[in-house]
Amino acid sequence: MRLDKWAVTAQEALQAAVGIATDANASELTPLHLLKALLSSGEHNLSAIIERVGADPRAIESQVDAAIARQPRVSGDTAQPGVGNDLVRVANAAEKLASKLGDAYVTSEHLLCALADDKTDAGSILKSAGVTGKRVEEAYSDLRGDERVTSQDSKTEFEALSKYGRNVCDLARQGKLDPVIGRVEEIRRTIQVLSRRTKNNPVLIGEPGVGK
After folding, report:
1. H helices present in 40-183, as ranges
2. Around Cβ 155, how many Cβ atoms within 10 Å?
């Protein structure tokens, strides 16, 4: 378990897991705490991967919360929980996966894949939702394409267009756009201009009535 080979987001998830374990008065840090930290991190990539394999991140998180509540608790003032053997095994598996995929650093996605493959409560919850290590790895590879993790502080958001924008063409195909009525000649002319291959197509964008 080499934290110097972990990306910043993965290190932050581990720190959050420590906080979750401490709040739960847990005797040791387990894969469940790490999975809870990943699911509550707000990382778009993780949600995209889980949804891509057909599962609901919120439903999984609810099951994780219930499982953490059932764990043994330590009473009284205790020190920060130590790292359990199960979590060390998950971390080592994530590091091997990162190396296999050609990444220089372990990311949250690698950790999720390792958790899904592990034979612990965290792995069982993920598998019951259809989130297996193989499916996570395939979804991760599909989302990132040829991109590789080469920087420790890189926070690449895959499918950024789908997160921040709308595919108007898809909306039109699904009949979700209001029809354009009138101005047939103007629309035809706009299509003609935008279809040119050898000329630039400048577009003035702004509120109506501002003098474009």
Report:
1. 44-52, 57-70, 85-100, 108-117, 121-128, 133-144, 160-164, 168-173
2. 13
For the chain, the domains span: 3-163, 165-194
Crossing angle of helices 57-70 and 31-39, rounded to 10°: 150
CATH code of the domain made up of 3-163? 1.10.1780.10
DSSP string, 36-66: HHHHTS--HHHHHHHHHTT--HHHHHHHHHH
- Determine contact, residues 53/131, Cβ cutoff 8 Å: yes
**Residue 39: CB partners within 8 Å, gap ≥ 6?**
46, 57, 60, 61, 64
CA 198, CA 93: separation in Å to the nearest integer?
A: 52
pTM reported for the whole predicted model? 0.70
| pLDDT tens track for 75-101 | 766 667 888 999 999 999 999 999 998
Q: At 145, is the secondary structure helix, strand, or coil?
A: coil
Rounded Cα gap, residues 194 and 212, in angstroms? 18
Q: Has residue 158 got a pLDDT over 80?
A: no
128: DSSP letter: H
Percentage helix, strand, coil for the chain under 3-state DSSP, each rounded to 5: 55, 5, 40
Cα distances (Å, whole numbers) of residue 41 to 152, 178, 207: 18, 37, 37
Query: CA dist 81 to 10, 27, 74, 122, Å?
Result: 19, 5, 10, 18
* Residue 26, helix vs strand vs coil: coil
